[in-house]
Amino acid sequence: MKLKVDEKSSGIFWCxxxxxxxxxxxxxxxxxxxxSYLPVVLIILRWGYGPGLLGLAALGLFLAIKxxxxxxxxxxxPFAYTYLxxxxxxxxxxxxxxxxxxxAFKVIGLxxxxxxxxxxxxxxxxxxxxKINPAEVLIEDMKYNNQRALESYRxxxxxxxxxxxxxxxxxxxxxxxxxxxxxxxxxxxxxVFLVLxxxxxxxxxxxxxxxxxxxxx
Length: 217
Prior knowledge:
The protein is an all-alpha fold. The chain has helices spanning 2-26, 38-47, 49-65, 79-99, 104-130, 134-155, 169-188, 190-214.
């Protein structure tokens, strides 16, 4: 009995540790953050919702005490709140769908729909509590990064493909128009990008999870 308890505690600890590593990696590679809730899903599938909720509480506590550095306009919103609201609840939803024995198509469809609903609820709560419009902040952050890139090109500290260092005014104007067109396209199609991101992310996490979970029975 003691051995089983120790194995369970050790398993939960390692799942939480892996989840934390994936969270921080996901800040550099966005798609990876969808994988960060898989260790919690594994806890729920192996040991139940109680240990799973305990694991989520531990993740939230660690992220609140040692929050990752988030630059830009979202820095005012606690990262722990964002992660628990969107990705942890998505993990719980995915666990429930898997436990119900739904097909991969239904799990991905319902899971991505849940993710979109959570993102919209999060955006509404952030707007209400912190007086921030997430869509506008995202666009402004992207514009700021584009301006920094343009300044680097103007100062000769960056180069375009081909290795050119010197740009004339027409080339810089063309680059600026390209950035503006890209921003306009993203702004108009933000809802489409959210849907695609949720489907791809949920599908990726499901199929990777299916392969990993098989080795754990």
